[in-house]
Specification:
By secondary structure, the first copy, chain A, is of the alpha+beta class. Chain A has 4 helices and 17 strands. The longest helix of chain A has 12 residues, at 5-16. The interface between A and B is medium-sized, with 18 and 20 residues. Chain A binds a DNA duplex through residues 138, 142, 145.
Chain lengths: 256, 256
DNA sequence: GTAATTCCGA
DNA sequence: TCGGAATTAC
């Protein structure tokens, strides 16, 4: 399997602070991963389809347990433009990486030891969400960072008119309102669009949202999927190849 | 003696984490320093020839003991483009620095207290090395940093074809292979050249190599000089004026 | 564990 | 050019 290193790095950066160790599933159709975060509250789902790779081959289905912190360190040894090959031996007790620089003068080989991990058997039902907010991922990061200095949780209120992020803490409170905008061609990159059946609002722990925001380098946009009485889902599409989705259950608090 | 501050700063940065205190020799022909690192394993050698200075005068030979950490702090008070004068009084119990800004509008004077230091009498024999690797110093830094996250030691294997740096640790292992290349004019800045009589390989403690890599800002290239059963020497040429050389004895381990 | 520094992104 | 984050030294 061959791919540019930078995207792989970003993927691992988007997961490693949430998940220490996880099983990764390799199958004919691609690579996938589902895992609860270390505190068993949030949930991540990664999908990389086979056709997104330059070449991809997996003769059989394999589940490999990796330490994401080690993997992150390993990937830091690749240049962003290096071509990456990932392969495993038949006994699959280690995962091998080769990085080749663009000019071919430098070839690195790294090996990651694998581990047996007790899988959190996770099943994610597809849902019909009441509201789907599609917004700039950098805007999302900015809002999460800004509200992170205000309080511990963010209330997300989605209405037809727009979406409001708000937080309150000891020193005060803050809110950011993004108005719904049909993607104006001029700056559609920043526009926020909201598809909504019914207004919905949820309070979410900022601690997790900050981690979700680490996926922003992977995608220009993030979509936030909300429904009453179920986890909120954040999706970052990874161009041409798949997505990262994060699920987080709302906090039960006074305002809902 | 007058010199641009930035180069002096870089020199001290390249030494201070390895050596706390050292004698510096001032003679008619220039400035030199030899010292073991604090753990008495690695060895540094600095040479600054008199003709590399804008002006240089040393009426007699002097050996002055300095604390490099204090010197580093002192030099941080100089602007990078300041012209530096270093001078001492006849009794030589302190070293005086003046920094003059490019526009001459600002002149700073600093004084460093000297100390008596028991010299490690160090003698470095000139050797005929079996292999000399000449490579980009930034590439060297990168490799040392990358392998630093893998293990505690690096094996350097020099052959006619190229040089391989490799390391192994708990989480896995890694290696970087640089292919030998006659300096193609196009990008000779990155090319690696290897002059070799006989293949040689040595295992070296990464802890020290990380310190050696701090000399990279002083020189675009580093040359690695290897011979069986003797310390490996790393040389960074300081343009027009001298060099820093580091010596490190190989670790005895199974692979050699 | 804290503090400083260096590097990257806005 | 400035601020923030990550890395590294004390």
């Amino acid at each position: 399997m061959i791919e540019a290193a930078s995207i792989l790095k970003k993927i691992v950066e988007a997961l490693k602070d949430l998940i220490n160790e996880t099983n990764i599933d390799f199958s004919e159709t691609g690579i996938s991963l589902q895992a609860m975060d270390s505190s068993h509250i949030a949930l991540c789902n990664l999908l990389l389809r086979d056709d997104g790779f330059k070449t991809y081959r997996s003769d059989r289905t394999m589940t490999l347990g990796v330490n994401l912190s080690s993997l992150s360190k390993l990937l830091k040894c690749a240049g962003n433009d290096d071509e990456v090959r990932i392969f495993t031996d038949d006994d699959a007790d280690q995962l091998n990486f080769s990085f080749e620089s663009a000019n071919k003068e430098r070839v690195s080989e790294f090996t990651l030891k694998l581990m047996d991990i007790d899988a959190d058997a996770v099943d994610i039902p597809e849902m019909d969400y009441q509201a789907v907010i599609d917004m700039s991922s950098s805007e999302f990061s900015r809002i999460i960072r800004d509200l992170g200095s205000v309080g511990e949780a963010v209330m997300i209120d989605a209405t037809k008119q727009g979406v409001k992020f708000s937080s309150a803490g000891d020193a005060g409170k803050g809110s950011i309102l993004l108005k719904h905008q049909k993607s104006v061609d001029g700056d559609s990159a920043l526009a926020t669009s909201i598809e909504i059946n019914e207004p919905v609002s949820h309070s979410l722990a900022l601690k997790f949202l900050s981690n979700f925001a680490k996926a922003a380098p992977l995608a220009d946009r993030v979509s936030i999927h909300m429904i009453e009485d179920a986890p909120v889902m954040f999706e970052f599409k990874i161009s041409e190849i798949g997505h990262i989705r994060y699920y987080l259950a709302p906090q039960i608090d006074d305002d809902e």
